[in-house]
Amino acid sequence: MNFESMLQLIISSALVYSTPLIFTSIGGVFSERSGVVNVGLEGIMTMGAFSSVVFNLTFAESLGNWTPWLGLVIGALVGALFAALHALATVTFRADHIISGTVINLMAPALGVFLLTTIYGTGSSQTIVEPFGNFDFPLLSKIPFLGRIFFGGTFAPGFMAILVAVLAWFVVFKTKFGLRLRSVGEHPQAADTLGINVYAMRYSGVILSGVLGGIGGAVLAQSISNNFSVTTIAGQGFISMAAMIFGKWNPVGAMGASLFFGLAMSLATIGYQIPVIKQIPPAFLSMAPYIITIVVLAAFFGKAVAPKADGTNYIKSK
Q1: Cβ atoms of residues 30 and 44 within 8 Å
Q2: Which of 3, 39, 276, 312 is most buried, judged by most C-beta within 10 A?
Q3: pLDDT one-digit tens code per residue, 73-91
Q4: Torsional sign, CA 229, 28, 286, 223
Q5: How many domains does the chain have?
């Protein structure tokens, strides 16, 4: 394998593994900027993965290449539904954010396996026939060297995730909606005094996190696992939260951290093809993303300042 081919392999593989983390970590940014801790991102990703796989298996024959893209829409809708449950518990009924998110994380895999058993008679799905494949950008892939590395045989949802990260940054920091969202996450009493509906903004932030988390799960299930089982989502939701913290609750920062974690995850799959890394036992490469997550949280958590009202229930004064 020459140097150019090796770079293309590393970058394209890292993009595949980073994409679910990018979507989900940005979702976490919206939720926590509104003041709601969404530990349930793992469960939301699980249900996004489940729903997209079931949709893919059901409609692949009639929809063809459009199936995985429409599967993202289904994953987003289901993710929004489960996020709405979290918002109902934390915003309306003022439940503890961590406990509510943990319940979603515990419920989602069991519910997915139960529904699979009900539909297909087995606890794991068949392999989907219409996954996300490689994509060549017209014209850009023809650019010498850089074109083949970044735009040839690449992962189209990854570029969509990068675009969403930039758009999310603009929404959070440059729009009236983003200003109101950040205000209820920093000082909800002051925001309420200025006429901002704190409950509505927090619902908006949490449901947006569900939409993006569901898309993250749908991307993962239709590109990496290509099926659904109880272990399809194995810690990626928590790694996304780590990326959000590492990125200092900034969508672009979360994207950068997700690319870093995604690279670490991809090396467990492609490491045997890379001259230096193939000497490392595969078990250590598989452990690396989770070890890196712990190290990053230990090193940067104290330096990253969360929104002041993050995790604090708001009671509207009369």
Answers
A1: no
A2: 39
A3: 999 999 999 999 999 999 9
A4: positive
A5: 1
